[in-house]
Amino acid sequence: MSTLLGNRRRPKGEADAPAGSPNFNHGFFYLIGCGPGGPQTATLQALETIQRMDAILAPARQARMFAEFIGDIPIAFDPWAGFWDYQGRQVNSLSPEEAALFRQERDRLVEKRLGQIRDLLERGMDVGLLEFGNPCLFGPGQSYAELLKPQEVIVIPGMGADAAAMAALQASILPAHDARFLLQAAPFVLTGQGLKPDMSLDEPSPEAQELLTLLGKQEHSAIFYMALTDAPRLFEILRGHLPGDLPCAVVFWAGDLERQRVLRGTLDSMPGQLADDPERFMGLLLVGRFLEGKPFSAAHQRSPAMSQSAGEQN
To answer: Measured between alpha carbons, how far is 314 from 310 in angstroms, rounded to an integer?
Structure first.
């Protein structure tokens, strides 16, 4: 920690503390959305914010990706170490007794690291936690941010993997044909069960069944996060309410220029297509008629404004 206690790094002409700081020399905790890939998918705001920090929180891989912008700013710690594993084993392989110990250890780690963050902030240092993608959509950095005072936290927006996936598919997800809305969820959220250690899916709750029935009656587009871990069960649930010929696509490693790839199919065909694929986590599932034809043009031709304009021109 001693290496983190030097003078604050401030751009020339900037005040000692930004307006709104809880105390005159109190630092801020920044959740920095860095996009789904490296610096290529980060915003200028994110990159400039990284360069202004006094301490960075990031895993080693991400720190290497942004090394050009981090420079000699110290890495205080990896905020995710111990978040999804216990004594070198993944959470989904733990016994119930070990899982209970894991939760206790994770709580202890969060509290310890929160103490480090608070110490830095009280010394007038700005701390930046590097988040992949959108820090406000399935962003684990909220585990720390929500334990601080709201006025101590600043969120720097970042492009999510959903944006990268839609770009890879080159299709308008909304407006799209007759779609009335865009659903974004994780399977364990949609089913109402919550996240299980192995991310397996149970039978949807009665409320979830009601929602799924309504979804089956309304044209819509959908994006599912963390959908591959129990993909066979997810497709079974979806096919119980949606037509089997409904187009879908999986975008693996969306936004990663080297590893991104696209797999297209239907709700009927995709389980078989995924069966032999080794990737079981880093993929977004997108579902809807927007994957066929010209969805944007079709939707606008159905709108009164466009139809009227077309009529006036004829």
So the answer is: 7
